[in-house]
Amino acid sequence: ALENAKYPSSKVFLKELVEEERGHKNKLEAILNDKNKLLELGFHGGEVQDLKIVDMLEDTPLSDGADYEAILVYAAKREKSTYDYYKTLALGLRGTKMGELFSKLAQEELGHKNKLEKEYDDCVLTEN
Questions:
Q1: Which end of the chain has fewer CB atoms at under 10 Å, N or C?
Q2: How far is CA 126 from CA 11, 22, 69, 119, 123, in A?
């Protein structure tokens, strides 16, 4: 998908998102080894706002030749799906450490969706 980004800044943005996802993996592995690391997980700027910009757009698979708009929509929808999944797990495990973990993961995923939707708004909606 990086190859299809039109502008260098778009490539940088997508690379940053990839690094954030790798960071999730590292954080979860650290929590397995040290339960106190759970405090480091989550979005630390308060509640994340769900902009809902891509929520009503059609779900389409990501093709090899996808343009930047399609990449942003696909990625934001994946983040929404993951957010919904973690939120459901958090509710089912409410009042437990695992519930807290999934709640924090849900907020991180919503933060990613928010970034993608802002990028979509800045790069796609303002150009059209």
A1: C
A2: 19, 30, 12, 10, 6
